Input
Amino acid sequence: MWESTSAFVAKLKALFSQRVADTAFDEEMNTHLEMLAEKYEGEGMNAREAARAARRRFGNPTLLKQRQRESRTTMFFANVWRDVRYGVRQLAKTPVFTMVCVLTLALGVGANTAVFSVMHAVLMKMLPLEDASRVFYLHTTGWPDGAFQTGDASTSFSYPIYRALREQGGGLQEVMTFIPMSTSGKVAVRVGAVAEEASGEMVSGNYFRGLGVNTALGRGFAQKDEDDHTPVVVIGDSFWATHYGRSRDALGKTLYLKSIPFTIVGIAAKGFEGTEGKMPVDLWIPLQSRPEFNAWGSPADEGMYLSQPKMWAMKLMVRIAPGISREHALAKAQGVFEQAAYTGIAPKHTGDPTYQLSFKEARQFDTEDVSFARALRILMAMVGLVLLVAMCNVVMLLMARNASRQREFSVRLALGAGRREIVRQLLTESLLLVSLGGVAAWCFAMGATHALGSWARIQSSIQPDGVVLGFTLGVLFLLALVFGLAPLRSAMSSGPELVLRSSAAASHASSQQVRAGNAVIVTQIAMCMVLLVGAGLLLGTLRNLLKTPLGQKPEGLLVFGVHPQHAHTKEESIAFFVALQQRLRTIPGVESVSMASSRPGSGWSSNNAGVTVDGHKPNGVEPGQANFRKNTVGADYFRTMGVQLVQGRDFSDADSTSAPEVLIVNETFAKKYVGTLNTVGHVLTNSKGGHPILIVGVVKDHKYTSITEEAMPMLWTVFTQGGAVSQLEVEMRTEGGDPLAMLPTIRKALAQIDPDMPLLEPMTQSAVFTQSVSQQVLFARLAGCFGVLTIVLIATGIYGTLAYRVNGRSAEIGVRMALGAQRSQVVWMVLRGSLLLTATGIAIGIPLAMAAGVGLESSLYGMKPLDPVSYASAIAGVAMVALLASIVPAGRAAAVDPLKALRAE
Amino acid sequence: MAADKSEVLQGTLDLMILKTLQALGPLHGFGIARRIEQLSEDVLTLNEGTVYTSLLRLQQKSWIGSEWGVSENNRRARFYSITKRGMKQLAVETENWERIAAVIGRVLALETKA
Output
C-alpha cells in the first residue's frame, strides 16, 4: 500500500519535471556507454569496436528512453486530457444534441434545486443558532377563560408564565421572550429626517446569549437592560448596511422608535435575522415599560403586558439545559405552566381542559401554516415529475446517440483500441455533459430561487441548496452512466468485424433497445399527463379566483395604516383620527376618505359571537352560537369602498361619540339572524341583552378577508363610538390616475401632524386583494410553466427518438417501397408506432392524474378534481404534440428513395 | 504469459540490485552492472539498460535514493544508495527467496517413483 502511494506521488511529481528528468537520464546513459566502451578498450578493442560492443551490451537506448519516460510518470492524466479533448470535439460536432441536453439538464435540475431550496429553508432549515438542537419554540393548545390574547393563539403567553418558567423551569437553561412591536411586526423608526417602518422586536435580556447568537460589533443585551428597560437597540446586519453603510461609527448613534431615542449598542451577527421566519427582523430592544411599547402595539388602556397577568402576548423560546432530555424538560415546564397560567384570574374549574405545552424545533419558520407547507410539497412533486421527464429525455438522447455510434466504436476496436479506452471515453463524455448541465443549472437555480422566494413573499435571504444540486447531479450522472453505457455491450459484442458488414445490418437497432426506448417514452407521456391535468386544474382555480366578484370597487382606492405616536387615551385617539379624516379630505384629488381597523383583503378579521335581536334569540339561533365578523370603520366607509347599500344609510360624521350608537349589517347577517332584509330599525344587543345598538343600514355581501372566503354574517360599527384605537387603515378614493401618485402629498400632510409617524404599508386596495391570492397565483403560474416545459421536453424526446429510428430503418423502408409499399403506408407505419405509444402513455397517465387531482383538491377553488375540461385539454395537448413531433420523421421516412437506399447497401 | 516471465525476472533484478547496494554502499548504474556481471560469472547475461528501469522502479517505491556525484575516473554520475525501507524490504525478499528456492530445490530433488 505504502509503496504504491509513494510510487504514485513520485509519478505525480515527475509529471511536472519531464524535461529535466529526460536530460538527466540521457547524461546517465551516455556516461554508462562511455565507461563501458573504456572498459572494452582496456581489454584490447579499438575505439570503434569498443563503442559498438558497449551499445550491444547496453541495449536499445531509444527504446529504453521511451520505456523510462512511460514508467517515470503516469499516463493517466495525459489520457484523461486526451479523452476530454476528444469528448469536447464530439459534443461540438453535434451542437444541437449538446445544447438540448444541457438546457434540459439546466431546466430540470435547476428548477428542482430552486424549489427544494425554498422548501428546505421553510420546512427544514434550523435557525443559525449555537447548538440549535437544544432550542425550541414554545407552543400551547390554549389559554384559560378570563385571559385574553394578542398575536397568534398558539404562541402567546403571559408575563407571569414567562417569569415562572425562568425561575422554576428546572430543565430549562434559558427562557427567552420576543414580542413584535405591532401586529404587522413593524415599528415607526427614524434614523435621519425620514420616518419609516422597520420590523422590530422587544426581547428579554438573555435573548442573544440564550439563542447563542453573537454580535458582529458591540454587545448584545444583559439582564440589567431588561430589568431597567434601558433605551438601547441592537440592529441587524441588513439594517446596518442600508442605514449606516456598515460603518463602525453606527455604535453609539441614536435612532428614534416611536419618537423615543434609543442608542445603538450592538450589531447582530450576519445571517441572524430573528426567529420570525418570513419577516427578517431589523432591530431588537430590551423589554420596555412605556405605554407606547405595549406588546403588539396594543392600546395601553387594555393593560400593559408587564403588569396585566390576563394579557397573553409574549412569544417564548427555550434552551434546554445540557444533559436533560426534551421530554423531561417539557414535563417540568408543563407543571410550572399549569400553575402560572391562572395567575390573576379565577382558578381552574374542575372539568376545564388542561392546556398542553409543546416544544417545536427551532427551524427557520415556526409555521403552523399547513397550507403553505402543502403548497410547497405539491410544487416539489410537480418539479420532481419535470425532472423525471427531463432525465428520461437526456437518457434517451444519450442512448440514441451512443447506439448510432456503433460503427465508430467498431472502427476504433478494429484499430486496436481497448474496451477500457472506449468505456473511459464514454464516461468522460457523459461527465462533460452533466458538468455543463450542472453549471447551467446552478445559474438557473440562483435566479429561480430568488424569484420563488419573493413570489412566496419570503423576505429572508434564501440561497440555492448546494447539497441538493450535488445530489441531483449525482443521480443524473449515474443514470447517464447506466443508460449511456447500456448500448456499449451490443456495440462491442459485435466486435471489430462490424466494420466489414453492410450498413443496414450494422445500424439495425436491437429489439431490446427499441423496447427500452418505448418504455421511456410511455413513462414520459404518462408523467406529462399528470402535470398537464394538474396545471389545468390550478389554472382553472386561478381563473375562478380572478373573476370572483368582490362586491366592491377596489380600483382607484389607496390604503395605508396610521399609528398615532402620542395618543394614549381613548379620547385622544378618537380625536386624532377624526381630525386626520377631516385633514385628508381637504387634499385635492381626494374623492372620499374613510378608515377601518382591519384592512379588507389582508386576511385580518375580528371574529365574534353572541348577539340578540330586539332582545330575542336571533332567528332561532342560540345567542352564544350566533357567530359573526366585525370591523370598526369610519364615516363614508361604504361609499369610499364602493359597496352597494341595500337599505338605510352609510355611516356619517354625525355618528359621533355623543350620538346614539349605530351599526350596519350585511345581507347574510340580515337573512340569517333577523330573517328579513328589511332590517333597519331593529336593535342588536349583546348575548346578555345589554348594550343596545340600532341597525341603520344593510349592505350587499362583499369580500372581507380574502377572495376565497364564503359570505359570512358581518356587522360594522363606527370607531368614534368604540374604545381606544391604536391604529386604523385609511381608505382613500382618488380621482383618476394611479392612486399611489398621491403618496408624496399624503406623506407631507402627515409629517405636518407628526414627523415621527410613517405611512404603514401603503398600497392600492386592488393590490391587497391580489396579494391575498398571490400563493395561488404563484402556484398556478408555476404549474403552467412546468406544463409547457414538459410538453417541450416530450416533443423533443419523441422527435429525437423517432428521427433516429427512421434513419436506422431507411434500408428496410427502401426495400418495402421497392416491393410496392405506398408512401402513405410508410407514413402510417411510423405514425402508428408513435400514436400507439402516446395512447398507452395517456391510458397510464389518466389514473395517475386522478390520484394527483385528489391530492390537489384542497388547493382548488371552484374546480372539481375530475374537471373534464382539464382532462380533455391535457389529452388533446399530449396527442397533438406527439403527432406534431412524429410528422417530420414520418415525412422523412416517406421521402426515402428506394433506389438510393438499396444502392447504399 | 510473456509478461509473467519478465515480472519474475524483474523481481530478481530488483533483489540483486538491492543486495548489491546494501553490500557495497552507494554505486552508480555502471558499477551495479559490473558487480552483477562479476557475481553471475557470465551465467546471466543482461541488457545493462534494464538496470536503469529497475533503479527507477526501486526509487519510486522509496527503497533506494540517489544523488549526483563524481565517479572514480572523474565523471559526473548518479550514485544510488539503499534506504531504511529498502533494507527492510531486502530482508523480507531475501527470506521469501530462500523459502521459495528451498521449496523448488526439494521439488526438483524428488526422485521418480520406481
Notes: The first strand of chain B starts at residue 27 and ends at 28. Residues 1-8 of chain B have pLDDT under 50 and may be disordered.
